[in-house]
Design brief:
single chain, 202 residues, 6 helices
Length: 202
């Protein structure tokens, strides 16, 4: 956690490798899910991302953002002012969410930091509990030919099939797409985006 506090306390939001001026693909996929604007959406590892800003502008009203860094969330809170968003500082593998409370789970660039099997098992358990039957899960990780490290930390890399195997049979892969992310430093990073749907029964 201290690592991410240092990152967001020492760098501007647009000076980190994962910065996007707009989360275009995520926004398009969230809209394509067909969920009502009153749907419960959580952004895992949202950091200082503009995604929550754009979702609010589109009329989504039940938004939560989780991040390890209080400094990151403070950046967004200052940017948005008195907007109705639930802010949570913490580790996704220790997150407490009510059963069947989430319509859409969004995670761009958190899952690939979970390098230990027990971390991924905890993530899967919390996700499976929280997401509603037929709820949506959008996860983006480094692709199998993406970077081996990010922000000085080791990461896992995935194909869509490998990511689907990690989530297990409770989740159906709807679609996947590769993306070449242009960093603020002029380099390219290969990502894989996957959209899953929870099976109808628990």
């Amino acid at each position: 956690m201290n690592h991410w506090e240092t990152v967001y306390s020492s760098k501007s939001a647009d000076a980190v490798s994962w910065y996007q001026a707009q989360a275009t693909r995520s926004l398009a996929w969230i809209a394509a899910s067909g969920l009502a604007h009153s749907a419960s959406i959580i952004d895992i590892g949202g950091g200082a991302s503009n995604l929550v800003d754009d979702l609010l502008a589109l009329g989504y009203s039940q938004l939560a953002v989780l991040d390890l860094s209080a400094a990151a969330l403070a950046i967004v809170q200052q940017r948005l002012g008195e907007q109705s968003v639930t802010w949570r500082v913490g580790d996704v593998t220790e997150l407490e969410l009510s059963k069947n409370s989430i319509d859409l789970w969004h995670d761009r660039a958190v899952f690939h930091f979970l390098t230990q099997p027990e971390q991924r098992a905890a993530y899967r358990r919390i996700l499976t509990t929280a997401i509603k039957p037929q709820g949506h899960v959008i996860i983006a990780t480094f692709a199998d030919d993406g970077p081996k490290q990010c922000s000085g930390l080791p990461v896992m890399r995935y194909t869509a099939e490998q990511l689907a195997a990690e989530l297990g049979d409770n989740f159906r892969l709807i679609k996947s797409e590769r993306e070449s992310h242009a960093t603020p430093f002029g380099t390219q990073q290969a990502f894989i985006y996957c959209h899953f749907q929870r099976t109808a029964t628990l």
